[in-house]
């Protein structure tokens, strides 16, 4: 995709109109419930495209355009004051403990610190969910900063494929949020504006299924999620966190935000027990997970959605995997979600 192709002001304006798909709170459900046109359909009317806010590994072009085959029509960097980044979507213990999501943000503090976010953090702000991923020795740093991401304009079919590859609508809640473009004069070395002096527009994004509260007037819809309990203390893998960091650099997101990402502590195996646990865990659960992935790809419809029975089977496997970790593997082989001090046992 040509990174010079910025989402036009007219397309942003259309997102706030009644005929736009961007304001439909049930769009994700409709997208995965119907067989849609071929992915990559070109030149649809503005009101028939979808604005999708990416913040995780989809920031990185090799993931979004390459592995997932999405063909964005345009893109634009944005700030989302109502949301913040979290890592509470369960993955696979010892390998990919968790994945990125978003939650509603509660900006603390008064007017004195509500204008911008500096490199060193937000002085006086209360620590947020994500701050538990920041090393404790980082003095004066808190992570209650607004979400920064990239809004892609995509076809409806591409949006359906995004939802399908993000758990087929089972792992997240689809949310319509207000996104603020950066001013034309903005430089990535500048502080992150709390709320840019630009006109906001609507875009769909994926919210953590474990988020229970809501703010503002945006419309949300809950999507059924899988069974494993919320993993509030899990840390992303080095591989996954690197994808997000490379995507942030690729799109020249604010340096302050990239600094925040670089300070997140990834999961690392530090003991022989954990190494053995990883091998045993993948040896036991790997074949079932691989079977689900292969069946999902081979049996998926043109909208990318797997048959209902296969989604139920996948939920069963995934739930059983995490229950076995909580009750057996974590007790025998130590922590598969968070980095721990070296264990010589």
Structure, described:
The chain is α+β, with helices and mostly antiparallel strands. It starts with 8 loop residues before the first helix and ends in a 12-residue tail after the last helix. It has helices at residues 9-14, 27-33, 61-67, 156-165, 238-250, 255-262, 272-299, 308-333, and strands at residues 49-54, 74-80, 83-92, 96-104, 116-117, 147-155, 173-181, 192-193, 201-207, 220-221. The protein has 2 domains: 9-262, Gamma-glutamyl cyclotransferase-like (Hypothetical upf0131 protein ytfp), CATH 3.10.490.10; 272-333. Residues 1-21 have a biased composition (Polar residues). The active site is at 166 (proton acceptor). Keywords: Lyase. InterPro entries: G-Glutamylcylcotransferase.
Q: Which descriptors would you attach to this protein?
A:
2 domains, 345 residues, Hypothetical upf0131 protein ytfp, six-stranded antiparallel β-sheet, 8 helices, 10 strands, alpha+beta, two-stranded antiparallel sheet
CATH fold-level name of the largest domain: Hypothetical upf0131 protein ytfp
Instruction: Please give the radius of gyration in angstroms.
Output: 20 Å
> What would CATH call the homologous superfamily of the largest domain?
Gamma-glutamyl cyclotransferase-like
How many beta strands in the DSSP annotation? 10
């Amino acid at each position: 995709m040509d990174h010079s192709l910025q989402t036009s002001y007219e397309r942003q304006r259309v997102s706030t109109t009644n005929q736009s798909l961007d304001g439909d709170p049930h769009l994700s459900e409709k997208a995965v419930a119907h067989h849609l046109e071929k992915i990559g359909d070109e030149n649809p009317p503005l009101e028939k495209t979808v604005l999708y806010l990416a913040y995780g590994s989809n920031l990185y072009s090799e993931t979004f355009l390459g592995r997932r085959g999405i063909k964005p029509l345009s893109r634009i960097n944005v700030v989302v004051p109502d949301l913040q980044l979290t890592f509470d979507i369960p993955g696979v213990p010892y390998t990919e403990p968790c994945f990125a999501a978003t939650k509603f943000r509660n900006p603390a503090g008064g007017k004195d610190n509500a204008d911008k976010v500096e490199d060193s953090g937000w002085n006086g702000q209360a620590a947020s969910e994500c701050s538990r991923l920041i090393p404790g020795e980082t003095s004066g740093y808190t992570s209650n900063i607004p979400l920064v991401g990239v809004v892609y304009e995509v076809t409806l079919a591409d949006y359906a494929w995004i939802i399908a590859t993000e758990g087929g609508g089972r792992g997240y809640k689809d949310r319509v949020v207000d996104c603020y473009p950066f001013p034309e004069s903005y430089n990535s070395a500048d502080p992150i504006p709390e709320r840019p002096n630009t006109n906001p527009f609507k875009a769909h994004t994926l919210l953590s299924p474990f988020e229970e509260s809501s703010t503002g007037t945006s419309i949300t819809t809950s999507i059924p999620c899988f069974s494993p309990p919320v993993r509030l203390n899990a840390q992303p893998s080095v591989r996954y966190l690197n994808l997000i960091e490379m995507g942030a650099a690729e799109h020249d997101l604010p340096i302050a935000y990239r600094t925040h990402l670089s300070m997140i502590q990834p999961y690392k195996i530090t003991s022989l027990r954990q190494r053995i646990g990883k091998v045993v865990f993948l040896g036991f659960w790997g074949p079932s997970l691989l079977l689900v992935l292969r069946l999902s790809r081979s049996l998926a419809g043109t909208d990318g959605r797997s048959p209902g029975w296969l989604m139920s089977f996948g939920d069963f496997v995934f739930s059983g995997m995490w229950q076995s970790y909580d009750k057996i593997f974590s007790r025998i082989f130590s922590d598969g979600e968070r980095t721990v001090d070296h264990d010589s046992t």
